[in-house]
Amino acid sequence: MSFERFVQSALSSWMNEDGPDTDIVLSSRVRLARNFKDFTFPTVFSDEEGQEVIELIKKEFAGKKISECGQLELLEMDSLEPLHKRVLVEKHLISPNLASDSSFGACLLSDNEKVSIMINEEDHIRIQCLAPGLQLTEVLQMANHIDDLVEETVDYAYDEERGYLTSCPTNVGTGLRASVMMHLPGLVLTQQLNQIIPAMNQLGLVVRGTYGEGSEALGNIFQISNQITLGKSEKDIVNDLTSVVQQIIAQERSSRNALAKTSHIQLEDRIYRSFGTLINARIIESKEAATCISDVRLGIDLGYIDSISKTILNELMILTQPGFLQKYAGGPLQAYERDIRRASLIRERLKLEKNENS
Description:
- It contains 13 helices and eleven strands.
- The chain is α+β, with helices and mostly antiparallel strands.
- The strands form two sheets. It has a nine-stranded antiparallel sheet.
- A hairpin with a 4-residue loop joins strand 4 (106-110) and strand 5.
- The longest helix is centred in the C-terminal third of the chain and has 29 residues, at 234-262.
């Protein structure tokens, strides 16, 4: 393998797999934050200590095979170009924080990209596991398996009362962040989401944008995760989040059905206008592209459009991001140039899909 293998395709192989409720839940993720006993935490460690952590991980885990996920490859952030790191962020394989502050940062990626272990981000390691649809229990099991493998080699910083010790106090306890990526156009169009978010906050959950904290919810895609890591078990955190997500799925489906019944012509017009924009536009900004892709995806789910697949739309959501556009262009692009190339890429990809299905 090589680094190019991870940025050659916009879609990770697992994104082509089916999963429960994939019409609404795009993916499930579990992330475990861990630090090593007798090592200074990354927020204050020395250069020598940072390098020591990388060398330890490299020796014990680089090239190691994980069941059903394949071999792990180590990518050191200092050896990557800024554009390459941006592409990894756009694929949700590393965090924006690791990409921007990469001194002694690294990442272990599995063949199928279901596993990403970030090294020396805010904590010594952050084990991330991903799967399509609503599969929080399954990805927790995968993360715990990897967690056990690491603990066979390294002792964790752990306190009997506080649990796993982390750089940020909000992660102390289980160190667990469970999240789902959800496509919620129905709740947005019916303006119900603004009423639901405060209720979720009261339940200890948080709603963020596409790339986590501080990011925008492009294309009606929202990340919903737990806030509480202390005082609850990993199983309870995942079960509680799953229960809430199942309720949101039901509300989203209900709002979509209501729109189809009460605003059929307006909804159909919106969907086909967006489809027409994607097929014909010569210039398109990222926010407009994301909105149009969201509308067309809704049209596929409701049966209005059957000439393209949702997989293509998943691919376009990532391909049309700035990092990927510039990677395929072979270098930096101005915003206006990206808008032109984005429109061209979308037209070509949808035309190819239409020809393949005709």
